[in-house]
Amino acid sequence: MDNDPSKAFEAKSYSYLVAQGKEPVLGGKLREKAVWVDESTCIGCRYCANVASNTFLIEPTHGRSRAIRQDGDNTELIQEAIDTCPVDCIHWVQFEDLDQLRSRLEQLNFQSLGMLPRPAKRSSSKEK
Per residue in 34-43, pLDDT tens? Predict the structure, then answer.
């Protein structure tokens, strides 16, 4: 048996195996739609991030939910997270619409939700 590590550099590359971003995850079926959070109506309840934590994240600046990965969780878990949303701000949309939705969202001026300023550290009143 030949254990020459330089053989790895001689291996042919397979261009058809290059990731395109539309492959099934772990043998799953290609998803036809993308998940989108309308941050303008999100109240920052964090339910979706608790249910599907690989897909949703609470954005730290404004305290609203955001879909950070389209392939983070399976479709059923994402749908469960959508169903838990009390203000119905999470939707299935076409992948082609994501860029337009993001640009429209960037034009809005959000106010922070529940992100209180950190209090200054207290100094000790005891004298030495």
Answer: 899 998 899 9
